[in-house]
Amino acid sequence: MSVASTDLRSIKRMMQQQNFAAALRDIDLILNTSDTQTPTYPKAFLIEIAYLKAACLRYLEHPSEALHELQKLQKMAPDFAKGFQEQGHCHRVLGQTELAILAFQRAVNLHPALVASWKQLHALFTLQKEDALASQAQTRVHELSRLPPPILQATGLYHEGKLAIAERMTRDFLKQAPKNVPGMRLLAQIAKQLYILEDAEILLAAAQKLSPDDLTLELELIEILQKRQKHSAAYHSAQTCHAKYPKEPMATLALANQCMGINEVDMAITHFTEVIQALPQHANVYIQRGHAYKTIGQTDLAVADYQHAYTLKADFGDAYWSLANLKTYQFSDVEIAQMLRLVHDDFVLNNEKYHMAFALGKAYEDQKDYGKSYEYYALGNTLKASELGYEAEKVSLQMSEQITHCPPSIFSDNLSECTDPAPIFIVGLPRAGSTLLEQILASHSQIEGTSELPHIMAFARRLSGNKRAAPEYPANLQSLDVATLTALGNEFIKETQIHRTGTPYFIDKMPNNFRHLGLIKKILPHAKIIDARREPMACCFSGYKQLFAEGQEFSYRQTDIARYYDDYIRLMDHWQTCFPENILKVQHEDILDDLEGQVRKMLDFLGVDFEESCLTFYATKRNVKTPSAEQVRQPISQKARYQWQHYAPYLTDLTKHFDSTGPL
Question: TPR repeats: which residues (predicted)?
Answer without folding.
Answer: 81-114, 283-316
